[in-house]
Amino acid sequence: MGPMLVATDLRKSFNGTFAVDNVSLELGRGESVGLLGPNGAGKSTTIAMLSTLTRPDAGKVEFEGQDVLADPAPVRRAMGVVPQEIALYPELTAQENLEFFGGLYGLRGEALRAAIDDALDLVGLSERRRDQIKKYSGGMKRRINIAAALLHDPKIVIMDEPTVGIDPQSRNHILDTVRRLNRERGLTVLYTSHYMEEVEQLCDRVYVMDHGKVIAQGTLDDVRALAGDEGAVWLQATAYPDGLLESLRALPGAGQAALADDGIRLTRTSELALIDVLRAAEKAGVTVTNLSVSESSLEDVFLHLTGRKLRD
Amino acid sequence: MSSQAGRSRSGSRNPLGAFLRKDVLIQVRDLKELALMLLMPIILIAILGLALGQFVTGGPVQLDIGAALVVEDDPTAGREEFTRRLAQTEMPLPQRVALTAAALTIQPQEMINALLSSPELADLIAVQDLDAEEAQALLEADDVQAVITLPSGFTGEMLSAMLLEGDGATMDVALSDASPLRAGIVNDILTAFAREVSFQSALSQELQAPPPGVITETGTVEELTVGARVPSTAFYTFGMATMFALFVAGSISGRAYLERAQLTFDRILLSGARPLAFLLSKAMAGAVIVFLQVAFLFVAATLILGALRGQPVSFWLGSAGIAAALALAVGAFSALVTSLNFRANNQAMSNVFNSVGVTLLAVLGGSFFPVEESSSLISVLGGWTPNGAALNGFLDAAKGFGLEAYGPDIIRILVGAVVLMVAAVALFPRKAVG
Questions:
Q1: What's the Cα-to-Cα distance from B86 to each of A26, B58, B78, B89, B159, rounded to whole Å?
Q2: Among B198, B224, B250, where does a domain finish?
Q3: Which domain holds residue B213?
Q4: In a shared domain, residues B53 and B198
Q5: What ipTM does this complex have?
Q6: Same domain, B23 and B153
Q7: Minimum distance, in Å, between the CA of residue A98 and any CA atom of chain B
Q8: Who among B4, B12, B26 is closest to A92 (CB)?
Q9: Among residues 180-199 of chain A, which lie with CB inside 8 Å of chain B?
């Protein structure tokens, strides 16, 4: 059986600037795929084209072998889209919102009630169904935003940054929901985020985007290997004088070095000796307060490929 | 969830009901909008109805004019004088007998009394019989605005003027300088009366027919009574209801754009609903909300202010038809402004409509003052605005007229609604998506 959703050479420009430039990707049935990249990388535009809300300037999208640009109806019926914004009516209760959107899909009577009960149960908000959305916390709004996309029992769900700006408890709830949708209910998931750890937790494969292009793709291991290193060293010191980053980058086996809020992150290969890191710090006149080593992550991959941190 | 695969195919898809329920719920839960739609009109009806009511009622105007009637004339002596003058003429005897008989039926003082105490003027002028000194004192104090004096010899001169081609009778009228409007009205009424008497006298002499007896109607009085009287609170109930109905179009279209900006519109499209169904739902929601709004205002104004109390069932049925037509027109306005907002990709048109558009339509349509008192151009234009035509229709219904009177108004409103809806559909950006 072929892939469920295939996008080939998608291009989209706004005012002469390419938001998406020759992006190709595919999703197999039951897969959980991550679309990773910083803000402005072109993830949302890609999703808009996949879900038929924006027509690409070039390229094509096929759902189960059918051209969705020629006939968007089948993919729209089979797809649940969770937009980055809270696409709900604040004046209505959760129940009323779900009744409205379910009604648009032709759900009536008992089928509608069952779908709403199921969706609310999945996102853990059954008890708050009678509350107006405007009275919900940010995390609860995002959970109902997900529920509204699941009412019509889609085969594939696309989530655009579903955890932006919410508390850790709600975030964990959403991640758990996505995991259950994929692993227990067999939904195909395309999950976009600029949080590396979320994609690492949820996805089997990943596409990394930057400046409208896919710059890396494959399984998590494949992509991690692209970094060409085995992880990173975190260095915390009493100060971070000019020249320290350059000294670290010049060490044998060192890769990219970047100053973050909590210290210096230095990608590395097995050739990097930690004693050399300590000596470089001593030579720069600072005292090391903490030194830790981590395995290579998608964050490292992005840093390796672009020279920038993902959340810059 | 997966156990119920294909849920969306289980029911027939008619999203208009879902759209309508959603839009009405959102509208009624917005307390600010509700206050604008329902509370503000009631307050304005009360204020305008009490403050400006005298100028808009369409019935006898309540100006509380006081007039004093000073009678120095002696009717008996006047008839004797007329008989003496008649005897001095060279008329044939049969004609003199006929004129003598006619003179017995003419009572000039009674004609004045009948005019001033007629039902048509009773609400307008309060007349007191006074002597000259008392009348002058009240006039100087502006307690009365006119002193009408029937001088000595008035009856004789009037009979001579009417039957013998005399020079005419003199009636003295002293007017108050302090209340020129009210004094002028008294003067106009008496002038019209005198002109009418002169005309009918000339006519009867020309035709050699007996002159009229007591004159019971004058042209001036007839002008003041067109149809049944419409209280000012009723006028402003119609005026405010038709004006505030227009705000619904701005509100609905503004929310429609918000749906696009907040991506609920995208979610609607992803469900497979057609963009034109969305547009049609805005027209439908606007129509339903306006009909409910007008119904509420009519009932509330009647219960609170007594505006439409006592109106027959035929009025309420007619008003329901007019309100339904108005609702459809405002619904079409909602769709048109929605289309313009979507085309411009902002909600500026809703703001412009609610500020400039509604004000212009309200003035043209006569929500604040009757446009028939304005130029004919404004009157014609106003009659073609949905609110103006509806206002005319409501007024006709309130005056007791039937469908033959307000039917053309309903047709004008419906024609306007169709034109607006066609424009809305033509302007709605079909390629907003996809």
A1: 120, 46, 12, 5, 10
A2: B224
A3: 65-224
A4: no
A5: 0.78
A6: no
A7: 11
A8: B26
A9: 185-187
